[in-house]
Amino acid sequence: MTAYSAAVTETPSALDGIRVADFSRVLAGPLATMILGDLGADVVKIERPGAGDDTRGWGPPWSPSGDASYYLSVNRNKRSVALDLKDPGDLAVARAIAMRSDVVIENFRPGVMARAGLDHETLSAERPELVSCRIAGIGRGDVAGYDFLAQAMGGLMSITGDADGEPRKIGVALVDVMTGLHAAIGILAALRHRDRTGEGQLVEVDLLSTTLFALANQASNWLTAGVVAGRMGNRHPSIAPYETLRAADGPFVVAVGNDEQFATFCDVLGVPELAADERFTTNAARVTDREPLVEALEGALAAAASAEWIERLSARGIPCGMVNQVDQAFALAEAVGLDPVASVSGVDTVANPLQFSRTPATYRMPPPRLGEHDAEVRAETES
Asked: How do strand 19-22 and strand 42-47 relate by DSSP bridges?
């Protein structure tokens, strides 16, 4: 598998000179700060002595070095310092790190940072240009911020799974991922405002708001039409056929987005009469009469294997593809000319998807060992 070179480029990164004090842990916050680190920021990860980030113990699987694969996924391009915020000396170091930083990010329960004197109000009184980011759980209350809870309580699980089955969570902590992305976007916008005005500010994002925002058309269906979505398996509530369809050897994905594509799709399948059937001539009609449509399409698809259909349909511009496993997805990325893996000091991580013509993402440091940079970070606070 091709891995992106971790060699340091002489081209300045977009966030060169930006310092980040990262008090966050688990996924949303660390993902946000890894993005900032990829873009050139100096990220100092403050962790609990002896234990560190919770994800350090979230295995199996473990990497060959003994690190939890989960931890490795979102912690490259950071320096680690182990500090006990209940110890006055360590707290003083943590405060010094924060006061030297452009950004402070945390995802503790409400009140924790304030009790330590590390909240935005306290820090910004002395450093008004500081940008702080707080990642909360289910709103601004004290409900624990776990992705699984957000998927359930935010409505996402209610629309995920088979129509006659139980609600299902998505197979990755997607709400945490999206919350981390929003946090990074908010921090960058706040830095832009600071650069124009000299004013810092507090950026807040929570898992529940992120989940509702991510419901997109399903949320709009409720807000504008009073339609409460339910589970539809792999089907789309407003487009057909836009789902998995079964060929002779099993299912593959078809994403027909308009009436012209549907006519072409039917022509490839050898059933052009379906495109002229009044039940299927428009997308709205196809959504209404989805069951007979799928029955007719799968009857035609039974004549050949999925790979053959994908080849024939793709040649005519119909969006379709296999349902890949993770290893197959990485192989596909390579096959279509991408570099999906960033290898840093022998640790393989997923490459940042952002591509820049002038300030590319860089991969300078592997995920740090707990407290690996204690000495140098403490020395910096004393200078």
From this structure: parallel
